[in-house]
Design brief:
70% helix, elongated, 3 domains, 0% strand
């Protein structure tokens, strides 16, 4: 895994999500994926590029840049003589990776829709090079709720949408005082609708129907008696045992 990370994973991610790649179009990455497959195949054809005494990052890593983790590679080179099966295991891993990459990048195959599209067409259909935006949104929600436990889901969604696409600039340029009043009225209607309470109640009801949740109920009750007096605690405890 360390070898694959240094030789393939890190160099690849540097090109699709490293600094300066914020505007990279996924549809323009066909050549990169072709280069990646060719490089893995070259390592399979000549394992000496990795395990040879003269192994160098210039020929071993994707793109030929320096090791992303020199200390890890130095340690790996020292351990290789004591690991008789490391070459076979590594090559098997790379063969599996090549199969997966071939399947993953099939959409970029020569003669396909992406390959035949013009630069203008690819730009019109621009897509981010990673799925970080979607994954980051969930993490951002968890962070927001952690800091503001009473924040409702629709309030968070409204704030998240407001912070995108220069919404404030649009409001300053277009909306009138009457528009602002209407938006605030709509927000109050949503807050008073009770939709958030209904959503949370559905979650509670669903959890109460799950066996794992029902098993925890006696334990929750038991912990609840710790704040009672000793006499009351004994009475409740014996009642729970019945």
């Amino acid at each position: 895994m360390t070898i694959y990370h240094v030789l393939i994973t890190h160099p690849y991610l540097r090109q699709v999500r490293g600094p300066g790649t914020e505007n990279t179009n996924l549809l323009d990455l066909g050549p990169l994926h072709q280069e990646l497959r060719n490089h893995i195949q070259s390592l399979l054809d000549d394992p000496g590029l990795i395990f040879g005494s003269d192994a160098s990052y210039e020929t071993a890593t994707l793109g030929g840049r320096e090791w992303s983790d020199p200390s890890a590679m130095e340690t790996m080179f020292k351990l290789i003589p004591s690991l008789p099966h490391v070459r076979e295991i590594t090559m098997a891993f790379f063969r599996g990776a090549l199969t997966t990459w071939t399947s993953f990048s099939a959409k970029f195959a020569p003669g396909g829709l992406i390959d035949q599209a013009s630069a203008t067409e690819r730009q019109l259909a621009w897509m981010p090079s990673t799925n970080d935006t979607n994954e980051g949104a969930l993490s951002a929600y968890h962070v927001a709720v952690r800091g503001k436990p009473s924040l409702t889901l629709h309030q968070y969604n409204a704030q998240a949408m407001f912070q995108r696409n220069s919404t404030q600039d649009f409001m300053d340029a277009v909306l009138t005082p009457k528009d602002h009043a209407y938006i605030m009225w709509e927000a109050r209607c949503v807050d008073e609708s009770g939709e958030e309470r209904k959503r949370q109640q559905k979650i509670i009801d669903f959890g109460s129907r799950q066996p794992s949740c029902r098993k925890r109920k006696p334990l929750v009750k038991f912990y609840g008696i710790l704040n009672c007096s000793r006499t009351t605690s004994k009475r409740i405890f014996y009642r729970l045992r019945r």
